[in-house]
Amino acid sequence: MRTTLTLDDEAYATVAAVAHTSGKRIGEVVSEIIRKHFAPAEELEFVPPTPDFPFYTFPDTGQKSMPYEDVQRLIDDEGIEEHFELMRHLETLRHQSPPGPVAP
């Protein structure tokens, strides 16, 4: 189907760049973006447990879980705690009132 779209400059530049690098027409790229945007959400891929990080299934819900000790070990191994600390600090700063006027 042929139609006319009005895109802002940034959107056009993005679509044009994708079209250029992929060798597709701009209309094809826009169609793909629209299809992906409105497509049903994909199921997450199941990653089977490993010996290092076993999962347990709760009988009443069927949900999978990882023991707390393994979660903590993963956080320690990956340095995730530092990320959480930074996020907490940024959240604290976000809620602080802005500084008052500076005296001359």
* Number of DSSP E strands: 2
The percentage of residues in β strands lies in under 5%
Distance between the termini: 65 Å
Poorly predicted ranges (pLDDT <50, ≥5 residues)? none
Note the main sheet: 2 strands, antiparallel
3D structure, described in words:
- The chain is mainly α and about 100 residues long.
- It has helices at about 10-20, 25-40, 70-80, 80-95, and strands at about 55, 65.
- It has a two-stranded antiparallel ribbon with strand order 1-2.
- Helix 1 crosses helix 2.
- The model has no long low-confidence stretch (mean pLDDT about 75).
What attributes does this structure have?
mainly alpha, two-stranded antiparallel sheet
Summarize the entry for a quick read.
The chain has helices at residues 9-22, 26-38, 68-78, 80-95; strands at 56-57, 64-65. The chain is mainly α and 104 residues long.
Which helices and strands appear, and what pairs or packs with what?
Elements: H1 9-22, H2 26-38, E1 56-57, E2 64-65, H3 68-78, H4 80-95
Antiparallel strand pairs: 1-2
